[in-house]
Design brief:
Blueprint lengths: L2 E5 L9 E3 L10 H6 E2 L2 E2 L1 H4 L4 E5 L10 E10 L3 E11 L6 E8 L1
Parallel strand pairs: 1-5
Antiparallel strand pairs: 2-7, 3-4, 5-6, 6-7, 7-8
């Protein structure tokens, strides 16, 4: 399982956020109990699952994915800010390392 985060213009290394309306988790469903507390994202639950960050097909961003773990979030009525630890994966050795935490 992973979080799928899609952005039109890709995922910059600097500050950013996603619209809260694009979080498609129903509070009364199985995923709701897995990731929400009181109808809001719960960081201890969210941070257990890696996130796959991609650009929309036909968007303005590059067509590759980044893998990260969400380690802090601030969910507001309009936007949700995410801070992540990115994983750097070596295609030749199959090993990975973590990168510094950044707000995305």
């Amino acid at each position: 399982m992973f979080h799928l985060l899609v952005a039109y213009q890709g995922w910059p290394d600097g500050a950013g956020s996603i619209p809260t309306s694009r979080i498609y988790i129903k509070p009364d469903g199985a995923l709701g109990s897995a990731f929400l507390t009181g109808g809001k994202l719960h960081i201890a639950k969210v941070s257990k699952v890696p996130a796959l960050l991609v650009s929309e097909t036909g968007g303005n961003g590059p067509q590759f994915a980044k893998v990260a773990y969400i380690n802090t979030l601030t969910q507001g009525p309009r936007d949700t800010a995410l801070w992540m630890m990115f994983l750097l994966i070596s295609a030749t050795s199959g090993t990975f390392a973590t990168c510094q935490t950044r707000k995305v």
